[in-house]
Amino acid sequence: MPQITLFFFKKKYSGLGDKINLITTCWSPGKLKGIEFYMYLDQNLDFTKYNYTYIGAIPKGYSFKNIKKYDPMWKKELGENLRNHDIFISGVQKDCASNCISEALTCGLPVLYYNDGGSPEIVKEGGMGFNNIEEIIPNLESLVKNYDSYIKNTRVPTIEDISQEYINFFSS
Fold it and tell me: What is the pLDDT of residue 5?
């Protein structure tokens, strides 16, 4: 059994509460990890409707006014935090396979992601992409409106699934 399942496993779905809990995790302070999107949300999101938690590193010179920021944490605590939230947001750019997105999906969180790199292939029907900063909030609201269908489709492929995809690819 892979180690990831010890800390990252699907939460029990109990529906959305009065306030929707958003989360982002990111270990790199690089600007291509989505800071422009998170800063936009910090300034424009309706915080009477949403709580937003950011766990990890951000580039020097940036800080949040409304988003609750926490330092990186160990996997066990991180998994617990993910399961205490409703939606994962990723603004990562030019990343072939974000571990943070995989961890969120493994915990059962639908993902709102920047439509770039490998994110669409990882998330599939378990979330919704955005192509620019103006689409973030409308797409988040759409994801919330259709939350039940997205949460049913959150999954990370097993090693068997991945192996079969390779076999199919090389067989064709």
Answer: 53
What lies within 8 Å, CB to CB, of 24 at 6+ separation is 34, 38, 52, 53, 54, 55, 56, 88, 89, 90, 91, 100
Neighbours of 79 (CB within 10 A): 21
Report pTM.
Answer: 0.88
pLDDT score for 148 = 92
Position 5: which residue type?
A: T
Express each pLDDT in 85-104 by its tens digit. Answer: 999 999 998 887 788 999 99
Q: Which residue has the higher pLDDT, 51 or 14?
A: 51
Residue 138: which H helix or E strand, with range? helix 136-145
What is the Cα–Cα distance from 57 to 80, expressed in whole angstroms?
19
Would you report the helix, strand and coil content of the chain in percent, each value rounded to 5?
45, 15, 40
Question: In a 3-state reduction of DSSP, which class is residue 127?
Answer: strand
CA 41 to chain centre: 14
